Structure prediction request, 143 residues.
Amino acid sequence: MAVIEITPEVGISEHELTFSFERSPGPGGQNVNKVNTRVTLHFDLARSTSLSNQQKGRIRNALPSRIGQDGVLRIVSSKERTQLANRRAAVNRLIELLAEAFRQPKPRIKTRPSASSQRKRVEAKVHRGTIKRGRRAEVSSEE
Prediction:
């Protein structure tokens, strides 16, 4: 039983993945009308035994548009001319998507604007106001 490594800590058993094959709209000449080269990878997230509930939740939050009502993650590949190459491409895409879902975002470090940047901002506002005041038509009190 082979394990697909997503991150050094997380792996998915290959038997949890299922594939379906259809005719591809992609390149292939006459072959495209005869051979089912388009691959759809199905990963049943709800029934997966390789992932913890917390990991499943992170995947659901990161990939909501790719997971159907039935809890199955679907990835389609039809770029390549052969079924095997499309199958590899779909597995590689699964690895990329799940690795991105498990990646921790860097925490934002709060910083304050520097004194010079604050001064430049105020000077720019004053300058802009001066320009706008110069555009106004002078209203004389004689009229």
DSSP finds three helices and five strands in the chain. The CA atoms of residues 2 and 14 lie 6 Å apart. The mean pLDDT is 86.
